[in-house]
Amino acid sequence: NRLSRFLSVISLTLLLLLSIPTLVLKAFGYNFIEINAEMGFYLVNDEGQGKPADNGLVAALPHNLFRVPEKLVLVVAMLNILLSMAHLGFLVWDWRAGRRTQTRAFRRNAMILHIINAVLVLCALIAISVAHKKSSTFQYQLIPKDPNVASPSGYRYFRYDSGTFDLETWTCELKDARGVGDARKDYSAQCHIEVAGRMIMTPFFLAAVTITMLSVWALIVGGKEMPYNEQIYTKDVDLE
After folding, report:
1. Fewest beta carbons less than 10 Å away: which of 94, 96, 113, 210?
2. 123 contacts 201 by C-beta, under 8 angstroms
3. Which residues make Cβ contacts (< 8 Å) with residue 188, sequence separation at least 6?
4. Where does the sequence pass through the membrane (predicted)?
5. Would you say the C-alpha torsion 215, 216, 219, 223 has a positive or negative sign?
6. Residue 24: which domain range?
7. Residue 45: what pLDDT?
8. Considering the domain boundaries, does residue 13 fall inside one?
9. If you average pLDDT over residues 167-174, what whole number do you get?
10. What is the mean pLDDT of the chain?
11. Do the Cβ atoms of 5 and 99 come closer than 8 Å?
C-alpha cells in the first residue's frame, strides 16, 4: 500500500544520506593510511625552540594498525549506496500503480536483501567499535631507541612497534603527543575525521535496521490489492 511505500522511501533516503558521508569519511581514513604508509616526521625537542631531537625520523603510522575495519566499512557503505538507490529507483518508477513493487516476490527479495545488509552493517559497527576499544595507547618512551625500519633507499628510521592501534586512537593521541612538531596539525585534522566516521556508524546501523523492519512489515501486512484484500503475486503482473 501507499503508506508502506511512503515510509520505505523516507527510510531509504535516510539510509542513502548516511551511507554517502560514511563512505567519504572512511575513504579519507583509508587514503590517509595509503599516503602515510612510507611517510614520517622528525621528533622535535619541545624545549629547544623546535629543533629536531637527534634527527630522529619517526614513521607516520605504527607498525601494527587495524586495517580490516576501515576496509569493511568502505565496502558496506558502498553496498548500502547501491542498494538504497536501486530500491528507491524501483519505488519511484512504480509509484503510481504499485503493482510490480507490491508483488510478493519483490517484497520477499527486498526483505532478504535488507536483512543481509543490516547484518553487514552490524558487523562493520562491531568491527569499528572493537578495534577502537582494543586499541593501544601511544607512549613516547616506547619509541624504539634504535632505528628499526629501512626505506627502499636504505635510510633507517624509527617505527613505533608497541601494541596495535586503530587509526582514530593513533591520530588523536599523536596530535597531543610531545615531540611531534608541525605534524600534529595533520594528525588533528585526521583525528576529527576518524571520530566523525565512528560516530556516524550508530545512526547508519539504525537506518539499516529501520528499512529492514519496514521490509518485513511490508511482506507480512502489505501488498494488498484493494478493495478485495487479495495478495498480488508476481505472475499476475507478467513478471513470471
Report:
1. 96
2. no
3. 171, 175
4. 72-92, 112-132, 204-222
5. negative
6. 2-36+45-60+69-134+191-237
7. 65
8. yes
9. 95
10. 85
11. no
In order of 17, 200, 220, the CA distances from 134 in angstroms are 30, 20, 41
pLDDT of residue 38: 84
What per-residue confidence (pLDDT) applies to 234? 47
In this structure, the dihedral spanned by the alpha carbons of residues 12, 13, 17 and 19, taken in order and rounded to 10 degrees, is 20
CB 103 within 8 A of CB 237: yes
pTM beyond 0.85: the answer is no
pLDDT at 179: 79
Please give, one letter per residue, the 3-state secondary structure of the chain: CHHHHHHHHHHHHHHHHHHHHHHHHHHHHHHHHHHCCCCEEEEECCCCCCCEEEEEEEECCCCCECCHHHHHHHHHHHHHHHHHHHHHHHHHHCCCCCCCCCCHHHHHHHHHHHHHHHHHHHHHHHHHHHHHHHCCCCCHHHCCCCCCEECCCCCEEECCCCCCECHHHHHHHHCCCCCCCCHHHHHHHHHHHHHHHHHCHHHHHHHHHHHHHHHHHHHHHCCEECCCCEECCHHHHCCC
Q: Percentage of the chain with pLDDT > 90?
A: 53
End-to-end CA distance of the chain: 22
Total tally of structural domains belonging to the chain? 1
